[in-house]
Amino acid sequence: MELHNGLLFWPSTFVKKQHSNPPIRPHYDVIVVGAGMSGILTAKALIDEGLKVAVLERNEIGSGSTAANTGLLQYSNDIQLHELSELIGEEDAVRFYKLCYKAVDQLEEIAHSLLDQADFIRRPSICYASKKGDVKVLEKECEMLIKHGFPAEFWNELVVEKRLPFKAPAALYTNDDAEINPYKFVVSLAEQLIGQGMDLFEHTYANVIENEGNEIILRTMNGDFKASRIVYTTGYERLPYATIKGADINRSYAIVTEQKPSFKGWFEDALIWETARPYLYMRKTVDNRIIIGGLDERKSSPAKHETVVDAMARELIDKLHELLPDETFHAPYKYCASFGESLDHLPFIGQHPEDPNHYYLLGFGGNGTVYSMLGSKIIADLIMNRPNDDARIVTLDRKYGIK
Q1: Under DSSP, is residue 7 helix (H, G, I), strand (E, B) or coil?
Q2: What is the chain's alpha carbon radius of gyration, rounded to the nearest angstrom?
Q3: Three-class secondary structure of residue 192 per DSSP
Q4: How far apart are CA 210 and CA 230, in angstroms?
Q5: What pLDDT, on the 0 to 100 scale, is given for residue 132?
Q6: Is 276 helix (H, G, I), strand (E, B) or coil?
């Protein structure tokens, strides 16, 4: 399945080293299938446990959803805390939000271990009300966040007008989020892990996966792999050994503008998004471009025709101009990408209910990088047979999960 179409920005910012695939070891403790954000973070968590790990990627590392990721790291989710509380209960909803909050800290720690820190920068977030009817929603969300110790502040219309270059009836201001170059992060972290003993196999597709007692055999065109356990981190690709229930694959559009000297009225260089669903989201880059995305469509495959991508790019430019009316823009980078959304707005993380040596980390939702981080810790605990009460929140055998 093609996950994106168009000209991507992140691969132009970083030169990836070329490696030959290493010799295949007689046996691995764990094989990770997929070398995107989820796969490399999972590999790190397992290597930190002292395990022998191989990562198999059917294309090149970071070339799937990671390359199309817009790099907003937020503890808030597509579903707000008070809404998630109504869905799964307040205790579990708050716990999940706290896991997301902690995951941003964990991503920062890893980024700081990399040579260039993958352009990780702490930023606040501003979620503005798309219409007057959303003001009470933001008020309710702010109250819930503050109640549980999250840094949040409600802005009325006058505060919005004072701090932002566009008008909105209200906004929710939250602290402790961040931005990152996801492609640089994944490729740089993989280089670090290769130095620690990880075996990375690119252009290696698992054609056949067999169980032989307590051993798993993966047959590929490049040879056979044997492992005690396997973790699927294949994102929105078709799963080789299971079926997802309770999820949709949709598509979204994004553009990256030309560089600008500055942007008037952009409060604290915040990450900006809105209450409408589907929503617009935008951020700056370290070289002073703007990334803006949205215009989601309920179609699973990226738009194939350049004219469609061009038309949606023009619409995003128009929306950007509405928010920053003193600026003019063009978009040298524009693309369409597929993304997954679970029906209960939670990722799929855990052990297969019928095949205990098979594990999954699938970060379905608009917060995929954060889900990948928290999920890698859950997977490591499960594989090391440590109790992890958080695993039940995202378990595969819930109403919406994997079969």
Answers
A1: coil
A2: 21
A3: helix
A4: 11
A5: 97
A6: coil
- d(CA 3, CA 348) in angstroms, rounded, equals 19
Q: Residue 296 pLDDT more than 80?
A: yes
Q: In 3D, which of 312, 258, 246, 328 has the Cα closest to residue 280?
A: 312
Say whether the peptide bond before residue 387 is cis (omega within 30 degrees of 0): no
Average of per-residue pLDDT across 324-337? 93
Alpha-carbon distances, residue 42 vs 39, 69, 232, 248 (angstroms): 5, 18, 10, 24
The answer for 45, left when phi > 0, alpha when psi is -120 to 50, beta otherwise, is alpha
Q: Look at residues 70, 68, 37 and name the one whose alpha carbon lies nearest to residue 271.
A: 70
Question: Which residues share a beta bridge with 282?
Answer: 272, 292
Residue 243: Cβ within 10 Å count: 8
Q: What are the residues facing 250 on neighbouring strands?
A: 339
Helix, coil or strand: residue 138: helix
To which H or E segment does residue 190 belong? helix 182-194
Residue with tokens 């990399």: 114
Strand ranges inside 146-278, DSSP E? 152-156, 170-179, 199-201, 208-212, 215-220, 223-232, 247-256, 271-274
Strand 271-274 relative to strand 121-128, pairing = parallel
pLDDT tens profile 24-42: 999 999 999 999 999 999 9
How far apart are alpha carbons 73 and 37 in whole angstroms?
Answer: 13
What is the rounded distance in angstroms from the CA atom of residue 145 to the CA atom of residue 172? 10
Residue 400: per-residue pLDDT = 61
Q: What six digits make up the tokens of 317?
A: 């430019």
Per-residue model confidence as pLDDT tens digits over 166-200: 999 999 999 999 999 999 999 999 999 999 999 99
- Backbone φ, ψ for residue 49 (5° rounding): -85, 0
Contact 74, 367 (CB under 8 A): yes
Reported pTM: 0.95
Residues in the chain: 403
Give the closest residue to 348 by CA, choosing from 243, 230, 207.
Answer: 243
Cβ distance 58 to 64 under 8 Å?
no
Cβ-in-10-Å burial (0-12, 13-18, 19+) of 256 comes to buried
